[in-house]
């Protein structure tokens, strides 16, 4: 597997990752390049220690996320385990030049959560036919590539999130961290639907600038 | 190859990324995303935002036994070979995959119901919290029934094209409309227009024909 060993050879050591972080900002933040390096070792060598480092950083955060979506602790724990196992099994499908590990993990946990809701609901509109509505990997969407998120360090994004006006931040959090639909947000806050959408639109434009994308 | 010219609204992309869109909307959004590199790039950004929010939060600790049992399982879980992208040429009779659970696999086996001369319709979903999907097939040059939107609506053109006050919509284009818009699309000449619309509230049709359709379809 020449390709994989090439990836492994270009891995980033924790030390390198740490120095890159401290240069970028004062308080420690996760480093996309470091985690991609850890994943490359999992992919190439089935490196359990690297994988457990990934687990120790991300699993508690996924747990917090799933609890925030309203899952019971035992359900959240099961979905965290399932997400982490998927990371292990699909390690070789991970492409750190296209998305950060954090983004990939978010997609996996979100998709498993949607699947579990679908199975639990009595809705006949969604037979359990294995169609993934939101693929974890771009490969599942067929040809044509999206702009690589690459090793975008997300310092700028973190700052942009912190700098959002309170109203916009609230709607962004309700969307992502509570999985509330626009109509639900509108109902809960007594805010017209059009305002919910335009507020989210403005927030997205600001956060994109934080990511380095043009708004 | 279809390159859509009309795209998903940022608020729709956020809802999709957050897993917060009603499933009918997610199915239409996913069908557009499969065709649209530009919206996929924006979705990557929306996913990065979700990931950052989750990483910013403090973790909620998991029991030590969960860590140990996972570690033990790794020994018996092989790492899979990467999945190659499916490069097979697409059968043009196939519906977009996200719509298949709602309407079946193929255009040729759709069981259209005529609701007016030149206008056929299909409905799927119960209009509950998951929303509902309407597929509409309109003959070339026909005026579609005037309708406004009680709430959200997301429309995707599958085949053919139409024009309305907002402009021209061809295959792969989405009309991601706010609730206050009332419009009357006219199908372009040539081929019938097939479109699919997700809605989370009954559409309001105006005029006697539209009211008759509403009665027939209970929409």
Domain module count of chain B:
1
Q: Strand order, biggest sheet of chain B?
A: 1-2-3-11-5-8
Q: What top-tier CATH class of chain B fits best? A: Mainly Beta
Rounded mean pLDDT of chain B is: 86
Rounded radius of gyration of chain A (Å): 19 Å
CATH superfamily of the largest domain in chain A: RNA polymerase sigma factor, region 2, helix turn helix motif
User: What's the CATH architecture name of chain B?
Assistant: Sandwich
Radius of gyration of chain B: 21 Å
Query: Which whole number gives the mean pLDDT of chain A?
Result: 78
The CATH topology of chain B corresponds to Jelly Rolls
Through-space gap between termini of chain B: 34 Å
- Just give the CATH class of the largest domain in chain A: Mainly Alpha
Q: Helix/strand/pairing class of chain A, anyone?
A: mainly alpha
Low-confidence stretches of chain A: 1-29, 122-132, 138-151
SSE layout:
The complex is a heterodimer of chains A (215) and B (219).
Chain A: H1 2-9, H2 14-24, H3 32-45, H4 48-68, H5 73-89, H6 101-120, H7 155-162, H8 166-178, H9 182-189, H10 193-211
Helix pairs in contact in A: 1-3, 3-4, 4-5, 5-6, 7-10, 8-10, 9-10
Chain B: H1 10-17, H2 23-33, H3 37-56, H4 64-74, H5 100-103, E1 113-116, E2 119-124, E3 132-138, E4 147-148, E5 153-159, E6 162-164, E7 167-169, E8 174-177, E9 182-183, E10 186-187, E11 193-199, E12 204-205, H6 208-217
Antiparallel strand pairs in B: 1-2, 2-3, 3-11, 4-9, 4-12, 5-8, 5-11, 6-7, 6-10
Helix pairs in contact in B: 1-3
Q: Summary?
A:
Chain A has 215 residues and is mostly helical. Helix content of chain A is 65%, strand content 0%. In chain A, helix 3 packs across helix 4 and helix 5 crosses helix 6.
């Amino acid at each position: 597997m020449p390709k994989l060993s090439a990836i492994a050879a270009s891995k980033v050591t924790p030390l390198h990752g740490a120095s890159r972080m401290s240069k970028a900002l004062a308080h420690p933040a996760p480093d996309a390049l470091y985690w991609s390096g850890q994943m490359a070792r999992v992919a190439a060598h089935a490196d359990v220690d690297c994988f457990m480092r990934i687990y120790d950083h991300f699993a508690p955060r996924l747990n917090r996320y799933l609890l925030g979506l309203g899952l019971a602790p035992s359900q959240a724990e099961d979905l965290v385990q399932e997400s982490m196992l998927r990371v292990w099994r699909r390690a070789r499908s991970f492409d750190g030049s296209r998305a950060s590990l954090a983004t990939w993990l978010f997609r996996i946990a979100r998709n498993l959560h949607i699947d579990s809701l679908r199975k639990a609901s009595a809705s006949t509109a969604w037979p359990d036919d294995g169609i993934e509505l939101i693929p974890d990997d771009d490969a599942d969407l067929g040809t044509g590539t999206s702009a690589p998120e690459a090793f975008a360090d997300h310092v700028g994004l973190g700052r942009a999130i912190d700098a959002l006006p309170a109203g916009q931040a609230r709607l962004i959090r309700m969307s992502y961290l509570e999985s509330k639909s626009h109509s639900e947000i509108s109902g809960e806050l007594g805010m017209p639907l059009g305002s919910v959408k335009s507020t989210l639109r403005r927030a997205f434009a600001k956060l994109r600038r934080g990511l380095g994308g043009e708004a | 190859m279809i390159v859509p010219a009309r795209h998903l609204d940022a608020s729709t992309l956020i809802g999709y990324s957050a897993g917060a869109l009603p499933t009918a909307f997610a199915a239409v959004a996913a069908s557009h995303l499969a065709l649209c590199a530009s919206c996929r790039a924006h979705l990557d950004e929306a996913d990065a935002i979700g990931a950052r929010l989750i990483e910013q939060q403090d973790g909620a600790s998991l029991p030590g036994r969960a860590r140990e049992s996972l570690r033990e399982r790794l020994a018996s879980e092989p790492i899979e070979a990467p999945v190659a992208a499916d490069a097979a040429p697409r059968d043009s009779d196939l519906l977009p995959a996200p719509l298949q659970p709602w309407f079946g696999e193929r255009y040729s086996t759709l069981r259209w119901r005529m609701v007016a001369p030149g206008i056929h319709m299909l409905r799927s979903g119960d209009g509950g919290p998951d929303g509902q999907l309407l597929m509409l097939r309109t003959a070339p040059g026909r005026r579609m029934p005037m309708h406004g939107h009680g709430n959200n609506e997301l429309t995707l053109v599958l085949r053919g094209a139409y024009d309305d006050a907002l402009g021209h919509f061809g295959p792969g284009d989405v009309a991601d409309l706010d609730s206050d818009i009332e419009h009357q699309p006219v199908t372009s000449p040539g081929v019938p227009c097939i479109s699919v619309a997700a809605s989370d509230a009954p559409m309001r049709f105006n005029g006697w024909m539209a009211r008759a359709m509403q009665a027939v379809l209970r929409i």
